[in-house]
Amino acid sequence: MRRWLLIGNSRWHWAAPAPDQSLQLWHTSAADGAEQLQQAPAAWAAVGPVPKELERWQQQRVLSSDVPIVQLPPALGVDRALAAWAAWQRQRQPVLVADAGTALSLTLVDAAGCFQGGRLMAGGRLQLQALHQGTADLPTLKHLETADPIWATRTTEAMASGVARGLAAAIASAFHDRPEPQWPWQLWLTGGDAPVLLPLLQAQGLQPFHDEGLALSALVALSRPAQDP
């Protein structure tokens, strides 16, 4: 079975063909993912540490320079490049892609497929980790699982609500600041924290497209021969 792999900062992200021709997606830790490397992936990309098992399959590796976005900075993370290209490819309209993973990355691509800049900030897990490590009494929260209640009476709920609403506000602010706002910009949301952030953005009157497998769909497309840019 053909598989595609994107190594993130905290998890490995996988895709494989489903019977209905869609993509089956799943996520593993690095340790569990390494056990699945029995054969070469159809294509793979990485922003996190690359294990030795993958070094022999460099021909299958997709780099940022392989992603056909115009004026893409060489140092831009391949996960951002893949997600932004996939969103732009859907309708070839200007897009702001919010990837809410370990980091919250915001990436702009205009209607011509040109990179127009972006923003970066710590994602939900990193913010919760910083709150715990940088204070004497705040507890550990490993994941951003909820944004409720709006005004919390418990410490853990206050941490989760504050971080989630801060991330949503950052995305909304970025969309408000988009260049040439008269253009038909689309807002796309992906990443592990996306399900928590989606209703918060909708409550602000935004209508993001949500796609968990945005970057992986681009990895699949770019691994096939004769793909149009």
Structure notes:
The chain has helices spanning 30-34, 52-55, 78-91, 124-133, 155-176, 194-203, 214-222; strands at residues 4-7, 12-17, 23-28, 43-46, 95-100, 103-109, 115-122, 186-190, 209-210. It is of the alpha/beta class. A 5-stranded mixed beta sheet has the order 7-6-5-8-9, sandwiched between helices. A 4-stranded mixed beta sheet has the order 3-2-1-4. The chain is globular, with a radius of gyration of 18 Å. It folds into 2 domains: 4-63; 68-219, ATPase, nucleotide binding domain (Nucleotidyltransferase, domain 5, 2-Layer Sandwich). It is 32% helix and 21% strand. The chain contains 7 helices and 9 strands, in the order βββαβααβββααβαβα.
In brief:
With about 230 residues, the protein is of the alpha/beta class.
Question: SSE layout and pairings?
Answer:
Blueprint: E1 4-7, E2 12-17, E3 23-28, H1 30-34, E4 43-46, H2 52-55, H3 78-91, E5 95-100, E6 103-109, E7 115-122, H4 124-133, H5 155-176, E8 186-190, H6 194-203, E9 209-210, H7 214-222
Parallel strand pairs: 1-4, 5-8, 8-9
Antiparallel strand pairs: 1-2, 2-3, 5-6, 6-7
Helix pairs in contact: 3-7, 4-5, 5-6
Key terms:
229 residues; alpha/beta; Nucleotidyltransferase, domain 5; 2 domains; 5-stranded mixed beta sheet; 4-stranded mixed beta sheet; 9 strands; 32% helix; 21% strand; globular
